[in-house]
Amino acid sequence: MPALKADNFMRSAAGLLLTGLLLGVIAEDCAAQRTAPFRVQPAADPVLKLLGNSYTNSVGAEMVYVPAGQFMLGSTPEERARAKAGGATPEQLDNEGKQPRRAQIRNGFWMGRTEVSAGQWWRFVKDAGYQTDAVRGLAVLDSYPEETAEDQPAAWITWSDAVAFCEWLTKKEKLAGRLPAGHIVRLPTEAEWEYACRGGRQGTMFWWGDAPADGQGRLRWREKDAGSKTTSPVDSFGARGRNGFGLADMLGNVRELCLDAWDSAWAHEEIYTNYTESKSRVLKGGSFKSAAFDARCARRMPCLYSYGGSDIGFRVCCAVELPNAKAALDKSLSP
Q1: In the chain, which ranges are E strands?
Q2: Which residues sit opposite 73 in a β-bridge?
Q3: Quick check: is 66 in a domain?
Q4: In a domain, 38, yes or no
Q5: Which domain holds residue 117?
Q6: Closest by alpha carbon to 155, among 324, 322, 5, 303?
Q7: What CATH code is carried by the domain that includes residue 324?
Q8: Which of 64, 99, 121, 274 has the maximal Cβ count within 10 Å?
Q9: Half-sphere exposure of 74 (CA within 13 A, CB side)
């Protein structure tokens, strides 16, 4: 009997040891999955067949397909603590919510590989005979607009200007037969933007991970390798500056306008369309003026719809039309 008990004890101990090892492996694997890139396999989508994984639109911008999927929208308390240690104020962090929330991007979409460039912007102004908010005296600007090279991102663009660009490009793309049924060219929603920015990587501060030092050679911001007083040409960092979806300059260079009205509480999974009550819109991505804490994927800022800055631009997406957004915007503009 003693020998039998000893044998059972050894088997139990071995079982416990094996269980512990397995749990350790699982815990390590979960931690790895939190930071490791993942690939979302696009469903068999007839819409995708029309344009493919990438195409060039009417202004010569390359549009890259971003498949539908889930992600964690917002920042963790740990991330905000690190941002605070890096110089962020509580006021700059409170609007990110208390916890990240699982969000569903239900439809794939195509997004500009880069921000809209100055050359593309001026092509619109000339072709449409468009008078910007600045020209009409309707814009609040942070400085006098400067002439920039065509390969620089368009700046000093108000939200209203960006919406007008999208409406013009929608008409051009429709005539070219490049709009799938139910799709338009528009600004991305805040959730679409952050999902695209993360590039398939979950739960990290930046699209490449958590270390600001690893941002060297990836983006234009106010850190070690940048120290710049202006923007850089779009996609100037090449492959190293592109995230897991192949999108360039998603952090740094210019802050990017989103379609959503501003909600100071948190970001929304579905578009927030309270345009009447909120005169501000959502800005994402940081800029050449940003420190590391200010250029995180989850970082969000308000921007008056009529405000234009030297570090404010936008990129477009070809995506499903959102009738509720149009109806809310039309209502806000009605007398």
Answers
A1: 54-56, 62-66, 69-73, 101-105, 109-112, 140-141, 183-186, 255-261, 280-284, 300-304, 307-308, 312-313, 317-320
A2: 101
A3: yes
A4: no
A5: 51-333
A6: 303
A7: 3.90.1580.10
A8: 121
A9: 20
The CA distances from residue 213 to 2, 102, 218, 254, 293, in Å, are 61, 28, 10, 20, 12
Closest CA to 219 of 142, 296, 143, 314: 296
Element (H, E) at 328: helix 323-333
Strands across the sheet containing 312-313: 300-304, 280-284, 255-261, 312-313
Amino acid 140: pLDDT:
95
Structure confidence by residue, pLDDT tens digits, 214-240? 999 999 998 754 556 799 999 999 999
C-beta of residue 183 within 8 angstroms of C-beta of residue 320: yes
- In the DSSP assignment, the letter for residue 37 is B
pTM (2 d.p.): 0.86
Over residues 89-115, the pLDDT tens digits come to: 999 999 999 999 999 999 999 999 999
Residue bearing tokens 């008078």: 131
Residue 123 has, within 13 A of its CA and on its CB side, a CA count of 15
Determine, yes or no, domain membership for 40: no
DSSP states of 238-285 as a string? GGGGB-TTS-B-SSSSSEEEEEEEP-SS---SSPP--TTT--EEEEES
Question: Residue 54's beta-bridge partner residues?
Answer: 64
Domains contained in the chain, number: 1
Tens digits of per-residue pLDDT, 296-317? 999 999 999 999 999 999 999 9
Helices (H), ranges, 36-182:
46-51, 77-85, 90-93, 118-128, 159-175
